[in-house]
Amino acid sequence: MQGITGTRPQGTSWRRISGSLTAISVDAAGVWGVNGSDQIYHRRGTYTNSHSVGSGWTGINGRLKSINSGKGIVWGANKSHTVYWARVNQNPRRVNWHAVSGKKMKQISVNGNDGSVWAINRQGYVYFRRGV
């Protein structure tokens, strides 16, 4: 959004950014997204700078259907609802994804401040965990 001020926190307009995604997330780890083919992307120039629109998308290894970024970490779930997480830096090229054993989830949300993770399974039940 553009035109964000103290009296107008919602901004005044949207700005179109290149790319086509089905899910997107932004936090200290930057802007992350997945497309309709479950391919993962990171927006260059947004790590610890979420106010920047960045300079383009970098394809990341792996496949996810949903994604959520936190402070130096990204979580997501694939089409089989297996949950994955990875520590990331400002220039991710190849990410080391770690599967989380246990519950299958369709949506993940990570708190960028304390690392707590919320998730929803296929039946719509809500789950919570602290970190990995």
Write up what this structure looks like:
The chain has strands spanning 23-27, 30-34, 39-43, 57-63, 66-69, 73-77, 83-87, 98-100, 107-110, 116-120, 126-130. By secondary structure, the protein is mostly beta strands. The protein starts with 22 loop residues before the first strand and ends with a strand. 28% of the residues are buried. The mean pLDDT is 90.
Which tags fit this structure?
four-stranded antiparallel beta sheet, 11 strands, mainly beta, single chain, 132 residues
Quick description:
The protein is mainly β and 132 residues long. It is built from no helices and 11 strands.
SSE map:
Elements: E1 23-27, E2 30-34, E3 39-43, E4 57-63, E5 66-69, E6 73-77, E7 83-87, E8 98-100, E9 107-110, E10 116-120, E11 126-130
Antiparallel strand pairs: 1-2, 2-3, 3-4, 5-6, 6-7, 7-8, 9-10, 10-11
Q: Helix fraction? A: under 10%
Structural class: mainly beta
Distance between the termini: 33 Å
How do the helices and strands follow one another from N- to C-terminus?
EEEEEEEEEEE
Shape: globular
Number of strands: 11
SS field, number of helical segments: 0
Radius of gyration equals 15 Å
Strand content: 35-45%
Reported for the largest beta sheet, the result is:
4 strands, antiparallel
Unreliable stretches (pLDDT < 50, length at least 5) are: none
Q: What strand order characterises the main sheet?
A: 1-2-3-4
Q: Overall mean pLDDT score?
A: 90
